[in-house]
Amino acid sequence: MDKQINMEALNASADTFGIGIGSEIKWIRKKQ
User: Fold this and answer.
1) Binned average pLDDT, 10 residues per bin, the chain of 32 residues
2) pLDDT value for 7
3) Nearest residue to 31 via CA among 23, 20, 16, 14
4) Nearest by Cα to 11 from 23, 25, 3
5) pLDDT recorded at residue 1
């Protein structure tokens, strides 16, 4: 059960991280 909760937490972090990277790429493209 703990492992499943940890995986869900990791997946949530990965989603947030992915969104953050996506925003950075958009910002870099706007700058050019």
Assistant:
1) 78 72 77 72
2) 80
3) 23
4) 3
5) 58
Which 8-state DSSP code applies to residue 32? -
> Quick one: tokens of 23?
């925003």
Tokens representing 4? Answer: 């499943």
Which residue stretches of 1-32 are H helix? 2-31
What pLDDT shows up at residue 9? 81
Q: How far apart are CA 6 and CA 11, in angstroms?
A: 9
CA 29 to chain centre: 19
